[in-house]
Design goal:
This protein is of the alpha/beta class. The protein is built from 5 helices and 7 strands. The strands form 3 sheets. The protein has a 3-stranded parallel sheet, with helices on one face. The longest helix is centred in the middle third of the chain and has 22 residues. It is globular. The termini are far apart.
C-alpha cells in the first residue's frame, strides 16, 4: 500500500491524520463529504465500502436495505467514474443485497468486471469458528470453518464437515 484514502461524510480528517502517523511508507489522508469523494477515489486500486448504518433493534433487513442501498449505490457510482478498474469489497449490510446493487450500477456505467466486485462477510466465518471452537473446547485461533452461501439467515452455510481440526 502506497496510499490510503479514508472517506466518510464527516469526521474523517482527524482519523486520516492519526492513521498517517503509522510507521509506514504509505501516505494516509482523510477526505470528508461529497465534494472530496472524487479526490479520495482517484487512482484507487482497491475500495472497501463499509458505509451505511448498522442494523438496530427492531429493524428488519428490508429497513436496513432501504437505507444502505442508496448509500452503496452512490459510492459505487463514484467508483465507476473515478476508479473504474478498482476492486470493490462491499461490507455494507445486507451484503447479499448491496453487492448486486453495486454490480448493476457498474453494468449501467459500462465498467462492470465480475472479478472485481465482492461481498465481505467475515462475521459469518468468525461466528462459525467461535461456535465450533467452543463445542470442541479449542482455542478459536486453532480452528478453520469454511462458510458458503449468502449473508441472510437461512442462506448462511457453515461447512462443519470440512472444518479443521475434525470433530472426534
Amino acid at each position: 500500500v502506497s496510499q490510503l484514502s479514508l472517506y466518510d461524510v464527516a469526521g474523517t480528517r482527524g482519523v486520516g491524520a492519526d492513521v498517517s502517523h503509522i510507521n509506514s511508507r504509505a501516505q494516509a489522508k482523510g477526505f470528508e463529504g461529497p465534494d472530496q469523494l472524487a479526490e479520495a477515489l482517484k487512482g484507487c486500486d482497491l475500495v472497501i465500502i463499509p458505509a451505511g448504518v448498522p442494523r438496530k433493534p427492531g429493524m428488519t433487513r428490508d429497513d436496513l436495505f432501504k437505507i444502505n442501498a442508496g448509500i452503496v449505490r452512490g459510492l459505487v457510482e463514484a467508483c465507476g467514474k473515478h476508479c473504474p478498474g478498482a476492486i470493490l469489497n462491499i461490507i455494507s449490510n445486507p451484503v447479499n443485497s448491496t453487492v448486486p446493487i453495486a454490480a448493476e450500477t457498474l453494468k449501467k456505467m459500462g465498467v462492470y468486471d465480475k472479478r472485481k466486485v465482492m461481498g465481505v462477510t467475515t462475521l459469518d466465518v468468525v461466528r462459525a469458528k467461535t461456535f465450533y471452537a467452543e463445542k470442541l473446547g479449542l482455542d478459536v485461533s486453532q480452528v478453520d470453518v469454511p462458510v458458503v452461501g449468502g449473508h441472510a439467515g437461512i442462506t448462511i452455510l457453515p461447512l462443519f464437515s470440512q472444518a479443521t481440526p475434525t470433530m472426534p
